[in-house]
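TA notes, week 10

Several of you asked for a full example with nothing omitted. So below is the full record: structure tokens for the whole chain, then the designed sequence directly under it. When grading your own attempts, check the secondary structure regions first.
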């Protein structure tokens, strides 16, 4: 026994339903009659009209939008054939489309011109709505997801490029202010070195490089000394063969033009030991 409420298998073309939802006047009479008599076509038309109404009014964007739940992204992943662990950050824009496309959320907004929706048997209504809801959800969310994924990929590419090129785009190279060749003193024959004073964004610094033929106990200390050797300033301890040291802002190189590297003993005396390894004038 057949049920008279089961809709005819021949439904209207989706383009015709879309034109009717947008209020196009030139709709064939046969199509209008079919929609009024076909519960499924009528429900699809009502859903399209609700989407069109919400799109024109802009109401979905007047409130904060909630992020879609994991089930939505799971459905998207299955539809696109993605891996099960692919779960992009949620994009709240999809909620507006989900709300507009949901028959339950707008069931009380059926246009008067078409009258109330026909009541289908529970089994037919549930399966038909579930199928159409799944179809509309995929049709609306897949383009949104694709666009969001493109944005994520673009931002990621920009961040990677910025990370790779950051050293080239960073602070300009230090400007060389002065240089000096460091010559060995009599007790350190064969030693040599150089000193380069640079201007950086954070201030002045001196880069000292020393090569010595023999090792000696203790440590090496770098000094700036006045031309008459009456005043000196320690700028730090040299570890290894090269070191970079900050020059105090109130120190004028014209007053302290000599760079000296001395051999010091851990005796607790901060003064110069008098045992200079190399020395040169900027």
């Amino acid at each position: 026994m057949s049920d008279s409420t089961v809709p005819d298998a021949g439904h209207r073309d989706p383009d015709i339903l879309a034109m009717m939802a947008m209020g196009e006047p030139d709709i064939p009479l046969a199509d209008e009659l079919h929609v009024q008599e076909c519960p499924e076509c009528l429900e699809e038309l009502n859903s399209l009209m609700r989407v069109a109404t919400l799109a024109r009014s802009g109401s979905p964007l007047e409130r904060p939008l909630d992020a879609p739940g994991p089930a939505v992204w799971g459905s998207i992943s299955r539809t696109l054939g993605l891996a099960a662990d692919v779960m992009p950050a949620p994009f709240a824009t999809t909620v507006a489309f989900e709300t507009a496309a949901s028959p339950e959320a707008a069931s009380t907004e059926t246009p008067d011109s078409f009258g109330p929706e026909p009541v289908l048997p529970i089994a037919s209504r549930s399966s038909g709505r579930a199928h159409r809801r799944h179809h509309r959800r995929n049709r609306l969310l897949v383009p949104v997801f694709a666009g969001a994924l493109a944005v994520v990929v673009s931002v990621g590419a920009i961040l990677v490029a910025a990370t790779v090129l950051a050293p080239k785009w960073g602070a300009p190279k230090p400007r060389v202010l002065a240089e000096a060749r460091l010559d060995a003193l009599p007790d350190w024959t064969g030693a040599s070195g150089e000193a380069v004073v640079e201007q950086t964004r954070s201030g002045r610094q001196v880069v000292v490089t020393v090569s010595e033929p023999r090792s000696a106990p203790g440590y090496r200390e770098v000094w700036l000394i006045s031309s008459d050797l009456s005043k000196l300033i320690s700028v730090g301890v040299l570890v290894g063969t090269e070191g970079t040291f900050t020059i105090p802002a109130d120190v004028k190189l014209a007053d302290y033009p000599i760079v000296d590297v001395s051999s010091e003993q851990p005796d607790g005396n901060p003064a110069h030991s008098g045992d200079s390894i190399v020395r040169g004038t900027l």
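Confidence is low (pLDDT under 50) at residues 1-9, 91-101, 105-127. Use that as a sanity check on your answer.
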